[in-house]
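notes to self, project folder thing:

trying the whole complex as one job this time. last attempt i did each chain seperately and stitching them together was a nightmare. three parts in total, labels are on each line so i dont mix them up again. if this works i'll redo the older ones the same way
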Amino acid sequence: MEIFLQLVVSGVALGMIYATIAFGYQLTFATSRTLNFGQGEALMLGAMVGLTLVLMGVPYLLMIPFVLLFGLAQGLVVERLAVRPAMRIKSEFGWIMATIALGIIFRNMAENIWGRDDLKFPSPVSEVPLQFGAVRVLPMEIFVVIGALAMMAAVEFFNRKSIYGKAVIATSNDRDAAGLMGINTNLMISLSYAMSSMTAAFAGILVAPVTLTGATMGSVLALKAFAVAIIGGLDSALGAIVGGLLLGVIETLTGFYIATGYKDVPGLVLLLIVLALKPAGLFGKTAIKKV
Amino acid sequence: MRNAIGAIVVLAALAAFPLVIKNPYYLHLLIVIGIYAIVLLGLDIVVGYVGEVSLGHAALFGIGCYTAGVMIFQFGDAAPWIKSWGFFLLVPMAIAVTALFGLLLALPALQVTGPYLAMVTLAFGTIVQILINEMDFLTNGPLGIALRKPDFLAMFGAKGLVDATRDVQFYYVVLICAALSVLVINRIVRSHFGRAFEALRDSPIASDCMAVNVYRYKVYAVVVSAALAGLAGALYTYSEQYISPNTYSFELTILFLLGVILGGRKSRLGPIVGAAIIVYLPNLLSDIFLFRVLTAFIAALAIVIVASAFIRNAPDKYNRLIPGALCVAFFPFAMTLESVTDYRLTIFGLMILFVVYYLPDGIIGYLTKTFAALRPKREAADTGEVVVDASTVWKPREFEAPDGVLLNVKGILMQFGGLKALNNVDILVKRATVHGLIGPNGSGKSTMMNVLSGVYQPTAGSVQLLGEEIAGRTPSAIASLGIARTFQNVQLFGEMTALENVLVGLHHTYETSMAGVMLNTAASRHEEQEARKRALSILDFVGLAKVADEQARNLAYGQQRLLEIARALALDPVLLLLDEPAAGLTAPDIKELMRIIERIRSEGITLILIEHHMDVVMKICDTVTVLDFGQKIAEDVPSRVQSDPRVIEAYLGAPADAAA
Amino acid sequence: MLTVTDLHAGYGKVEVLKGISFSVPKGQLVTLIGSNGAGKTTTMRAISGIVKPTGGRIELAGENIAGIDCHHIARRGIAHSPEGRRVFASLSVTDNLRLGAFPRLTGHRAKGDVSADMERVFEMFPRLRERAFQYAGTLSGGEQQMLAMGRALMLEPEVLLLDEPSMGLAPRLVAEVFATIGNLKAASITMLLVEQFAAAALEVADYAYVMENGSIRHEGPAQQLKNNAAVRAAYLGGGH
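result (full assembly):
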């Protein structure tokens, strides 16, 4: 029982990382019905840039705004190079392939800049676990949970409170009608990509200290986060959190009770099952198809 | 014919290759190209014909590899025959096992499309790679499996007669397999299966309404594609003589996709060219000098192409400027690279971007588009000249209509959230009449069409066709019962010819199984011949026989509307639903349309017609039902409906003086 | 104020508008009537830039705006209350109204007093005030129509385009909507109204154009067209 509790607690931090990345998928999907297949690379680049800054002596907290800015810029690049041209020629195949292509370019660039070996990201907080009854919690895990929640809350706050955020929501509700309001909907899509990559980059510097940092760190995380986005539905932030926690916990349990090598399997199997039974996700609304 | 001669020449040249070039390196390169070509030919069915992105083909390929590998690893020592004669067991087994995995993937995954499907197949790929790695009791894990190519000559006791190394022998095996794959795929894509694949990409909804069950045919496509990946996998195991889990990575999947789109989709030559490029590319990239020479060549070629476009003053000359500049700019970039191997993935990525935006038809597609001489002859030539035979147009279904009632719609309620798009509507349609359905915008006419054709499932109520309840059935099931339809916003299969569009409508007349198609049986050829004859006759009936070989998207709008009717007639309907057939037509076109509708009715086919051109409605309808706010407000002969005050109010608004 | 000359537009291969010309003088209410599929909505969409015209000119206060992006047209002062209302379902009523003033709030148009204008909208549609913090998606059809009109007014437009404001509404609400249109006319707002319900539209309008098959068939002062048999024929056929 104690071990079980311990595993659940460890799963929570991981789950919040998934939730943050899944949240990023939701942002771009809402405005443009597109997803960045290179979301994992956005996360990895965030972690890498963060690590570089930390190694240059910039304190962790001071490094965060730089990484966020970098994420914003990287999202704009993805939108401009991979998504917009494909949307102009109305090619779904186009943006899927183009975001994949950009993803592998980014990954390859990272390999050439930072090397192929995994690096250690120094933990910004103490690495001595805190004891809560029988359960031990790493301070970084608490930091991850708080950070992820804060990030999502900040983006939601921006969307709910600022006129530009509302314009983003309006664009996702009805693109044509948003255009009639004088909203530059292309700009809103760029903005959603910028915010999406920013949340991913932030997830990168959150997860880096608890795992290893390397060029390939993002791809599997992003894939599992997609599973979370599907499980939670592509239109519900709460769904992303619930789905993330669910997957995080299942994964740590699998890793312990079956074998570490298999820990990635349940999330992906879950993805297959959810899509087969309820394609709109557990929390999503089903869409009416129109002829 | 010309294609066949070309294929034979190429085959002969390839068969002679080992006799001329003795270098084992090039032989091996050709073997791998052949194997990859088989994978890409299969992947092309999913990507090119069905139009979906699969990121799981590296995994399917891996399953093929490991089916053969695991059998040898597990049983090879206990039963040595597996290492020799086993080849003839293991290759079919790899095909079967991989096809089975393809089915396991397809059943849940094909519930979704587009980006979802891409992610699901990626998840599948990742799972397979993990499992191969982790299940070391079965697969020997990361250590991999080693084996040898079989010595076929020794097996057949022909060692003394012919002298060839195992590599050369195996080369011929791969050559035969690749040639067979091309042959089989050719047959499939030209059959009703291939047309179903293409149709469901262009318009899934229209496919379903032509009694082609989209889901089922997508599953077929994935399974065929997987089977080919399995064949290629087994061959790869023998060709490399060593397999290990990390081969079947995301990178390989991307390489496969690059191969298909770079070579050119929807062709046999494209995947082969693509395979040659992706196999040769890594070798090329390991030689910096060769790489620089090639980029210089590409830059020069780009300059020539762009310059010639400007000299000829081609209309799309400015469109070529950016890709041309990119090609040229790549050359100095290539000069700065010290070692290309490290930038391999970047180069793949750039190539994908380039192909997606500037070479969407791939190399072969670009060449055939640019040089008309390379364009394949239309398929009509393959099956002999088809002649119009008006007697084959109509094949009325036999049925009994008690009291002359064909369709009985009772109490239909269609609710979207809080909105009642149809509220308790009854309609009675008599046999061999034209029944008009009119009403203001948003009154529920198109919703009714969608309910009748099964696109929407009504919230309540019943729809009886000749006494049989059809509400709640799938569109393809309803189409099979004889309800055909057209669409308000034309839903043709744009990349297919007019004739092929009608042939999709005739899908229900085919009985040949996939195996029959692959073997090209006499029955299958006869069936195809008959269907083509009928399709052309139906086209002739609507006056489109002369454009039979035009792609549907290139037809004039009026012709597209008529083609939709022709396609619907091919279903041999008892009831034909026409949704605004006259919208966007010119006056002479409308006259022609009315003549056609009259003729259809005289063949005993009942029609339901939604139309805004009131003159058309008033002239040809026997009965008219008027909907307003989802409710039926009138139903009568046209002249009386026209002067019904409630109808006038529904159309013109309240005050009665407007009608004076 | 708004002058359309030989406007052509369509979707893909289909040419819906086959060269139409009309004008909306400042402070007047002009209506386009005609049956389904005549091209009324496409005309509206071409003016506001959702559909790119394939030919012709659209002049707003003498400046050609044909072909420029939708959001730029809105910023120049054309407010479009679209067919089917198209309110932002997952935003509150207040947020919908604020977005109507988006160009004013983001410096693309004279700011003026946004909150006073919102107050005016609430006075015009008291029901919206009651529902100010509700999601727009939860409103009834009639309330959504009011919101769509209020949202368009928030632009302080030079020209207001009203597309089928009565569509899908119960007769009582239709009357209410037309009363509002009458009020706006009294406030001398320049309006172009597309209506299927010709009778009601002709009642409020100054001048009317009758569309059929992508062309303008008749035009004249609204009062004169009211009892014209050709108008009825355009809807129900048989007048030739």
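what i see at first glance: Chain B touches chain C at residues 440-442, 556-557, 560, 580, 583-584, 612-615, 617-618, 629, 642, 647-648, 651-655, 657-660 (CB under 8 Å).
need to look closer tmrw
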